[in-house]
């Protein structure tokens, strides 16, 4: 039932986007990918380049995906005692005319409690929500790096 609801919601969103026609959103997602994850109920991470071709600063404020129980925006950083750790962030700013890269060792989209294993070659749908541009659908490729 939940899948059906999501499908309806997606169809609605796609319709909305199509309805916008020529209006440029300004946000372009490039090279989105997800690491393969051999286990169900494991965690995964999605990476990409977010480009802001518009004239207004924007920010990634939320992410969602059907394949995970929860999705968070994380930043990898040095913790106390020289340990690498990560923590959720409220948003990732994307300055007008600039870009931000989500990559291993930095910002990433954390996929928590994955519903099924991911193998290289699959694609995963992500919904990224921006403060100004709103929700954007992204197809991410599953690959090693
Ligand atoms: Cu993380």
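^ structure tokens above, recovered residues below v
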């Amino acid at each position: 039932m939940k899948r059906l609801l999501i499908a309806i919601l997606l169809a609605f969103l796609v319709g909305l986007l199509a309805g916008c026609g020529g209006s440029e959103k300004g946000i372009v997602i490039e090279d989105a990918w997800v690491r393969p994850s051999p286990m169900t109920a494991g965690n995964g991470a999605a990476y990409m380049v977010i480009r802001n071709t518009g004239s207004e600063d924007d920010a990634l404020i939320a992410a969602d995906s059907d394949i995970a129980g929860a999705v968070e925006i994380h930043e990898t950083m040095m913790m106390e005692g020289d340990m690498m750790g990560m923590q959720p962030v409220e948003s990732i700013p994307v300055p007008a005319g600039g870009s931000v890269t989500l990559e291993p060792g930095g910002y990433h989209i954390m996929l928590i409690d994955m519903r099924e294993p991911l193998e290289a070659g699959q694609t995963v749908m992500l919904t990224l929500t921006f403060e100004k541009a709103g929700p954007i659908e992204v197809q991410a490729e599953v690959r090693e790096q």
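The domain at 24-142 is CATH 2.60.40.1890 (Immunoglobulin-like).
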